[in-house]
Amino acid sequence: MKTPEIFKRYIDSVCGYVRWKKARPVIAAELECHMLDQRDAYLKCGMEREQAEKMTVRSMGDTAAVGGQLDAAYRPKTDWRLIAAALAINIVGLAVYFTRLPILRLLSEGTRALWLAPFQFGLSCLIGWLCLTAAYFTDFTRLQRAAKYMFVGLAAMSAVVWLMPDSRYWLTFDGYIRVLYRFKFWFRHIPVMFPVLFAAMLCSFRGKGANGLAAACGLMAVQIICCAMVGSADNVVICCVPSLILTAAAVAMGWFGKNRDLQWVILGAVAAICVAAFLILHRLIPQEDGMYNAAVVKSSIREILSHARLIGQGREVGADVLYIPMNSNWDHIVTYLIYSYGWLCLAAILAVYALFFVHGFRLCVRQNSSMGKFMSLASLLTLFIETALYITNDLGLTAFSVSLPLFSYANILTVVFMTQLGIILSVNRTGGLVCDVCSDCRQTP
Predict the structure, then answer these.
(1) How far apart, in whole angstroms, are the C-alpha atoms of residue 327 and residue 325?
(2) Pure H helices in 61-176
(3) Does residue 176 sit in helix, strand or coil?
(4) CB–CB of 78/425 below 8 Å?
(5) Contact 331, 403 (CB under 8 A)
(6) Whole-angstrom Cα distance, residue 45 to residue 40?
(7) Is the torsion defined by CA of 161, 162, 168, 173 positive or negative?
(8) How many Å apart are CA 77 and CA 214, to the nearest integer?
């Protein structure tokens, strides 16, 4: 039976007091369920249907009072603490870069390549904040509906990058460089957006049994292929680790059926393939840091850090050793800060990022829907892995081509990081209105 007309008028009147339009359908559904249940209770007590409906409306209370309470309860949730933390990290990063400007000018030896880096970083941060704002105001459920098309689009872009000639410059004229972009370097970070799209698509595989797990494993294989096409072994780690974690969570929750032992074996085999792919690509793709071999840069960083103090400027180190990491294409801002201000600077950086990720994780896990949890976790895990790899880089332990989110010079990658943060904020803003299963209201015929 359809909802009684008297109920509809009451619900429409209440929803008229709710300013957040996206919340109105949710509120209407909740009110309808509650009113139908209350009417059924009156019918069981022996009331006539018409009388029961009138009593139900009377018991709900004044529409203005109820609407005002619901308007106060249903508001978009903006996590200003996460935004403030991101803004503070970004501002400090920019400040550090501009304090290095005289050194970069000296190292650039008359070229614009190095001393323009702070200004390029500032422009990429501005574009990144605009993308963050756009992602924040975008309904994240729309991203799930468009995820497969965006995934295919990123795969196609990776193929285009693979087909590009491996040349630093595409066009020169009379000795002057007209095009300064090294496309393969800039766009090799395309796969970094795969995890959040994978998370959105993974939710659509729920309840599809072995086919769903096979599709998830197939998407991970596509990510590996795309990383190989753009020439980045490091992105295999950044893409596959979040995807494996989310798929493991889906298996643990029984999304793909009851035969979990076999599913764990399959997932373990996929993880082994991911590790093998990383090792193979890492061996095949030259690990160079600008004009220097990665091993030389790692050795220089260790030498520099061995002269660092707990507080203050480090002991004197050879100019040739200090020159290498500062003149390389990879950014080593944490190494610079440790040597310039002491190991306590590293402790402060780790503390700030720890608070940032702990708070972000709390926002992710308290979402009502699996889609909201998975999409926000995918973005947060990507940022976390980039941060962890960057810190190990600047301690001379590894040689990954990564950037420190929100803090270090990254151009396109800065925009990607900001967009992922905007997705996390978008999920937190409207995630309370999305749930996995909406219980159907029982209606008396």
Answers:
(1) 6
(2) 63-73, 80-99, 101-108, 117-136, 140-163
(3) strand
(4) yes
(5) yes
(6) 9
(7) negative
(8) 36
In degrees rounded to 5, what are phi and psi of residue 48? -75, 155
Residue 267's Cβ-count burial label (10 Å; 0-12, 13-18, 19+) is: buried
| Distances in whole angstroms, Cα of residue 441 to Cα of each of 1, 35, 199, 368 | 11, 10, 30, 19
Alpha-carbon span 15 to 406, nearest angstrom = 40
Compute mean pLDDT per 10 residues along the chain, 445 residues long, and list them: 80 85 83 87 85 86 86 83 92 81 47 63 90 90 86 89 60 40 64 92 90 93 89 86 94 89 93 91 66 73 88 80 56 84 92 94 87 92 94 87 84 88 90 57 37
Residue pair 307/316 in contact by the 8 Å Cβ criterion: yes
The whole-angstrom separation of Cα 42 and Cα 7 is: 15
Q: What is the pTM of this model?
A: 0.82
Q: Which residue has the tokens 């440790």?
A: 338
Site of tokens 């422009």: 123
Q: Could you say which DSSP state residue 396 is in?
A: T
Nearest-angstrom CA–CA distance, 244 and 251: 10
* Alpha-carbon span 399 to 102, nearest angstrom: 27
Helix 333-341 and helix 80-99, axial crossing angle in degrees, nearest 10: 70
The dihedrals phi and psi of 172, each to the nearest 5 degrees, come to -130, 155
Q: Which amino acid is at 120?
A: Q
Distance (Å, rounded) from C-alpha 349 to C-alpha 24? 43
Cβ atoms of residues 409 and 347 within 8 Å: no
Residue 252, token pair as written in the block: 């643990």
Q: How many residues does the chain have?
A: 445
DSSP annotation string for 224-261: HHHHHHTT-SHHHHHHHHHHHHHHHHHHHTTTT-S-HH
Q: What backbone torsions phi and psi does residue 293 show, to the nearest 5 degrees?
A: -70, 145
Longest dimension (CA), the chain: 95
DSSP-assigned letters across all residues of 285-322 = S--EETTEEHHHHHHHHHHHHHT--SSSSPPP--HHHH
The pairs formed by 10-17 with CB atoms below 8 angstroms and a separation of 24 or more are 10/35, 10/57, 10/60, 10/63, 11/35, 13/63, 13/67, 14/63, 14/66, 14/67, 14/70, 15/67, 16/67, 17/63, 17/64, 17/66, 17/67, 17/68, 17/70, 17/71
Contact at 8 Å (CB) between 386 and 238?
A: yes
357 Cβ neighbours under 8 A, 6+ residues apart: 380, 383, 384, 387
